[in-house]
Every structure is written in C-alpha cells, then in structure tokens.
Amino acid sequence: MEEKINKFREMIKEKKIIDSMLALLQWDLETQAPKGGYKLISEMIGELSLKSYNLTTSKEFLEMLKELKKNEEKLDDIIKREIELLEEEVEKIKVIPSEEYKMYSELTAKAQGIWEIARENNDFESFAPILEQIFNFNRKFIEYRGIKEDVYSEILNDYEKGMNVKKLDNFFAELKKEIVPLLKEVNKNKRDFQKKVKFEVSEYNQKLFSKEILEYIGFDLERGVLSESAHPFTLTVNKDDVRLTTRYLKDFPFSSVFSTIHEGGHGIYEQGVDEILKDTILSDGASMGIHESQSRFYENIIGRSKEFWFGILEKSKFKYSELSKLTLEEIYKGINEVSPSLIRVEADELTYSLHIMIRYEIEKGILSREYLVKDLPRVWNEKMYEYLGVVPSTDSEGVLQDVHWSCGLIGYFPSYALGNVYSLQILNAMKKDINIEGTLERGELKRIKEWLREKIHRYGKLKTPKEIMVSVTGEELNPEYYIEYLKEKYKNIYN
Amino acid sequence: MEEKINKFREMIKEKKIIDSMLALLQWDLETQAPKGGYKLISEMIGELSLKSYNLTTSKEFLEMLKELKKNEEKLDDIIKREIELLEEEVEKIKVIPSEEYKMYSELTAKAQGIWEIARENNDFESFAPILEQIFNFNRKFIEYRGIKEDVYSEILNDYEKGMNVKKLDNFFAELKKEIVPLLKEVNKNKRDFQKKVKFEVSEYNQKLFSKEILEYIGFDLERGVLSESAHPFTLTVNKDDVRLTTRYLKDFPFSSVFSTIHEGGHGIYEQGVDEILKDTILSDGASMGIHESQSRFYENIIGRSKEFWFGILEKSKFKYSELSKLTLEEIYKGINEVSPSLIRVEADELTYSLHIMIRYEIEKGILSREYLVKDLPRVWNEKMYEYLGVVPSTDSEGVLQDVHWSCGLIGYFPSYALGNVYSLQILNAMKKDINIEGTLERGELKRIKEWLREKIHRYGKLKTPKEIMVSVTGEELNPEYYIEYLKEKYKNIYN
Fold first, then answer.
1. Which domains does chain B carry?
2. How many CB pairs (< 8 A) connect A and B?
3. Model pLDDT for residues B452-484, shown as the tens digit of each residue
C-alpha cells in the first residue's frame, strides 16, 4: 500500500509541476510578454495542457486511482478527498478528444492577447469570432458528457458544486426584488460624494501604497508579488508563490486600492492553506464562490468600512497627503457612493450584483442559443439600460470590459454574487468571536486573517464549499444577511 | 529524405519549445518571482533541463542526425549547420550523467536567488558554498570530455570557438601594455567631469526615457520588453519576444541609460535574425563575443559619442530637463570621465577591460586550483588594487557584483573584452559605407541597424564568429583598432 501511495504522490507531483508551469506561462502572458510573444507562449500552453491531459487520462493513472480506491479504508482523509476530486475531474475531461482539449487551451491563451487589443481599440468585431469559438467549445465539452439540455447548469456546477440555473434564477430574483427598490430609494437622495476622493496620485506612489495595504491586511509579500495587468487577477503558482495584479488610474487612486484589497483577499486565502496540503491537489480554494467570498469580504466588508480607514489613517507610514485633508466621514461616503456606472470592478456594493446579473443572463442566453455572439454589444447595452439605467458609449466600456470570457471562464461570474452573499454570512459568524469595529480601528487585521485561516483557509479543498459554509455559519447559502447589510449600510449613508 | 527532414524539424521544434520555456522560467525568476517561489521554479528548471538533455541525447535523436549526415549532399546550408552545431552540443553533454546535468541546472537556478540575497546583505559566506559547487561542476563537466589539463581553455572555447588561455593571455597582455600607460597619462589630468551628469531623476521618468531610447536606436518594443532586475541582462524567448532588463539609480540616470543601450544592442541583434532561421537552432547570436560586440558597439561607440547626444537632444520628445542646462561638451565629458571605479557595468571604456582581466584571472586561478573559493574576496580586492588602484569596502561592491557566476557562466567574461575589440573592427568597416557622425547627428540610427543587420544579425548562427569577422572586416580578431580608438578618444578628452 505504501508503494501505491508513493506512486500516487509522484504522479501528483508531476501533475502539479505541469500545472504550476501553466500558471507561470499564463502570468507571463498577462503581465509582461510582448505582443510578438503571444503566439509561441500560446503554443507552449497548448503543449503543456495536452501533457496534463495525457497524464490524468492515462491508463496508468486511472488504474492507480482504481487500485487505491479498492483499499479506501486504509487511506487518510486527504488522499481520499484527492481521489474523489480527481475522479470528478477525469470524468469531465476524458470524454473530450485530446486534440480539442489542446486546441481549446491554445485558443484561450491566444484569446487574451486578442481581447486586450480589441479592448484597447474598441473593436468588438475582431474579438467576436474567437469568443464564439470559446462559447462553442464550452457547450460542446458539456455535450460530450452526454448532457444536451440545460448545458449552463452543468457549467455552473463545475464552478460551484450543487449550483444550477434554477437555483441561480431564484437567487437573482430575490436579490433583484430587494436591491432594485433599495437602489431607487437611494437614487432619490443621490449626492456626489465621490468627487472628494478623486484626486491625482502618481503611479509610483499608488504602487507603494498598494504594497503597504497588502502587508497591512496580512498578505505576505515574501511569498507573493503585486504586479500590473489590464484586468486585475490572482494567480497561484503554489502557496509560497501567490501572484496578484492591480491597475492604476492616475486620477482615481481608490480604484487600485480596492482592486488590490480584492486580490489581496484571494491571495491571503491561497497563502493560508495548511502546509500539509502543499503538495496535494487540495492546496487551493474550496470553490470559486468561497474564493470570492474572501476577496469580497476584504474589499467591501473590511475595505469599504469606516473603521478600516480610521485604522489605516492612524497606522499608515505612507498615505496620500490629500487624504489627511478629508474627514473620515468624507472618505467613507466617497468610497461608498452609489452610482449606476459602467465598469463592474469599480461598481459600488449596491449595483454590483446587477452587473453580475447581466453577465449571467448573457451567458445563459448564448449557451441556449437565444443570443448570437455578434449581437452581444446590443444585448449588453440593452441590459445595462434596463438594470442600471446607463449605456456605455464604447464596447471597451461595455461588453469588452472583462477578461473572463477570453480566458474561457464561462460560468464564473455568478461566483462573485455568491461570494458577496457568503461573505456576509461569514461576517455574521465572525462577529460572535471578534469585535470587528474595534479590531479594524486598532489596525489588528492579523486577528481577522487568523480567524479566517482557522475556519476556512487552512482547509483548502479538503472540505466542500457546502461543508465550509455549514461548519462556519451553521447554514447553507442564505442571502438574508447580505440584503440586510446593504439595507442598513445604505440607509445610513443616504438617510 | 523529405520525411527525415520533417522528423528533424519536429524534434527541433520540441527542443525549441523546451528551451523557450526554460528561458521564460529564468526570466520570471530574475524579474518577478517572490522569494517563496524560488524553490519550485528551480525544480521546474531542473525538470525541463533534464527533458532537454534526454531529447538531445536520445538514441532516436542521435540516429536521426546520423541518417541525415549520410545524405549530406542533399541538405541545404541551414540544416547542415544545424547538424554541425547539434553534434558539437551532443558531444559535450552526452558525457555528463543525466542526474548531474539536472542537478547543475537546478543549482544555478537556485544560486541566483542566493546570490541576490548575499549581495543585498553583503554576505559572501552564504554564497561561497554554492559558488564552489558551480566551479566544481564546470571543471568536472570538462573532465568528462577526457580533458584533465588546461580545463579553462576548453571552457573558453565553448563560448568563443577557437579561443584558449594562451590566446587570451597574449591578448590581455597586449591590452595591458597599451592601456595601463594610457590610463596613467589620463590620470595625471584627472578632472571631475561626471559631477555634472549626476542628478536626480525619478524612476518613472527614467523608465520612460529608457523606452524612448530603445525605440530611438531601433529596438522593436512590439517584439520585446524592457523590465528591471538586480543585474541587467537580455534574454530571448524567440526573435519576436526578446526581453531586456535594466536598473535605475535614482541619483545617476545615465547608469540606466547605458545599461539600456547595452542590452538594446543585444536585443537588436536577436530581433534581426532572418525570419527563415526562426524555427531553427540558428536563430541566435553567432557567439558571445560577437554578441557583446553588438551591445558594446551600441553602448560605447554610439551611446558615448558626442554625435549621438547631439542627435537625441534634437529629436527626443522626452528628455531630462537637467540635460538642457548642459552643453554638449559637458554631457560628452561627463559620460566619458575616466575614473578607476568599483563596478564593471558602470566603468568607463578605458578601465573596462581591466575589470574583465580581474575576472579572467580569477576564473583561471580557481579552475587550476590556484585559488580557493573562500579566498575570493581577498584575491578580488588585491587585484582591484593592483590594476585599478581602488579597493571595494564591501563584497557587494566587489566579488559579489556580477550575476554571471551564479548563473554558471564561467568563461563568459572574456566575451566582453573580445566584444570591445570586435566592435572597433566593425566600426572601421562600417565607416567605408556610412558617414557615422552625420548619421548619428541626424538621429538616423535605423541606417546603422540596417547595416549591422545586413552584415551580421540576419545570419544568426549560420556563420561562425570567425566567418563573420572575416567577411565583414576582412580579418580575424585584431586589437589594433580598439587600442587606437581609445588612444585618440581619451587624448582628445584629456588633452
């Protein structure tokens, strides 16, 4: 048995090295590679993906899994869970012809460069054919599993086990029912709070402040880096090498601050996985919904609170001089102004979920063939007008704004909304152990990080998202806390 | 035959993908990876190096080479040259046990992180054991070839075919004979010209200027990038993805300017290789000496000339405001001050070769067991005092200053001196076709690039260094022009 387990660990190590290499190529592509390099790097990604595919679908690998399962009672929880997840993964990919698997990996690698240029040039047409291919591949891969109807539910389930269109429809309907009237209420008292927190700061100084904030919230820069990209993201090479990006807007320094805190939340999660899981396939977030619960927790519940800014103004060595001219109240309202706007990553908490709904409905519509890719700019703008009352003047500010589709992340967006909901459930549990306001005011963010690590981060994928939510909060997904939080917060701000 | 050639191209493609991947990992390690990532990335480099080793020493590969050679008359010049170089390469590595090959790759990958930290902390001792291993591996790898005596000559020959200790001893003796008296002469008239070109410029502005200069000299930023690292270097993923680094000293902007131009020279060479060689193993510089001839040509002959600065002051959209307060003469003398100093990469042209001599003598001494690694700080300082009359106060400014040894580049340094000599031979030939002064004054650097491309760059490794020198200049290595140039230049400055 020991021999079999050693064999298993060896193969997993090989798999992890390939995956880490893929991660590094991805990182390079999005942060440094010149345009001339896109082609070769995409090819490399294709090659490596094929290697990873071949490894996990090989006869040797599948037999090894079978052998181990025969003696399941002798295995510890970690390896049992690894086998369970590997079986799920293999089940999904082995039905895909290897050439298509490779083609798709190359396609999504290449697509990012094309998306970036399309976004720069406000040229949806140059991106549309590749986007269509990406959607088609996604539909086809699900169909290979024998699923012909309600393909999108199956995709959703890949990101968040147990999720499907019906559940999400209900969930969004609930949010809509509560948030849209609240938004109307707030809009009646609309004020330009944000003006005061829009000032010019050099990119260099924004960079320094971003790094300080990362350390302040507990991200370890010895085991991670902060870089820049067109669209902020987090990428894990391994738990000792967690990479974040942000982007700097010269005349609105808070944009990078909140991107940085958001990605920092993802990064703290990844860095916090237990050392014992490091060389296993469990050293990763439990699900994308749980992952986003951490990033949104840091970004909104912590980052957009008054107490956080009180703490950082007291403690920061480096802060924008313009900040000291403002009262805490002005900062707080400035960073929490509700204003239906075009860009999701800069949306306030109240309109944020509506941005997600738009993407959710579009993905659903394309996969069910209700919409065609070429119609997306129009559909996008119509939905923006319907839910948010604003219409982008360019596709760069509209349908081209997100990196996700070019990466092949169809079905990912709902994770952000689930993350919001989870984060408030988690806050409610945390409150029983920690005086959050005081902790933030004293700048003791390490305490919060430790609590999250203890309850969530350290487990990685050892627990399912549902197990985590039930063990931490005592219940499954429940939007109640989130809605209550929004109501209270915004009634106070817009009283 | 066609089938055999296709098979060959396929295997070369695989080799090139592995090598490009290695290059990207190296790049990542030196520009972005956090300390926590060094371990895993070094392991990946080890794995990939082993793959590359296994490929080129495999029975299949060797038989393919043999097969092709049987029908040599049917092969074109490109593939013939590829086979010739591959045979040389295989000859050298197949005698090394694969495990040692992998260990050495991992070692040099890991060593760079250790060197960087040692340099930061001025802690030679923490680097010494690893440096000793690197020297030992180098000695051993040569011994595996059956060579027990004069190991260093063999190593030198790997970097510059035909080179050996005897030739280099003569060469350096000649340089020493001419340069040391010249240096004494100059030192009698010593003046502080440099003061005027030392002023403070923000890193951000230095970055902008560096990029402008790169475009000005003809480096294509669509097919390359400029980043930062502890020690400037150039790394090629392929000819459409050529990567340079520089470093910024806040109070001495010319430091980054000349690093950038130097690496730009390497980069222009790599970008200029003929498209037809792109997927061959010839898409690379002819030798390290020829490579350095291009970087030193751009850095010194172009970059430190009066005419270049006249041109750039006229044409630059972005320049340091401090520059416009200086006369052209003040700038010229400022960037050409002769002053025996500690750091090679910042040395003037006259003392530069002496820095190389020190490293050359040390490498020779260690490989012949005349010196021990632990004695290096002392030996270094003694030689600095002997040749340059200055002694570093810390090892960071002394024996720890260069990245080369940690990368395993033993025997590389002489390439810089050869490059200097070559560059003046090339200038002499270029003068017959181009009015260099006028071209620089008018900022028409593309003309110079095109000349170099036509005569040198496009051939990549298709020609040997000797063939290139003879075809371009009509003769082999000849230090005469270099020495004449230095004499004339510095007599004019220090008249």
1. 2-145 (no CATH), 165-493 (1.10.1370.30)
2. 107
3. 999 999 999 999 999 999 999 999 999 999 999
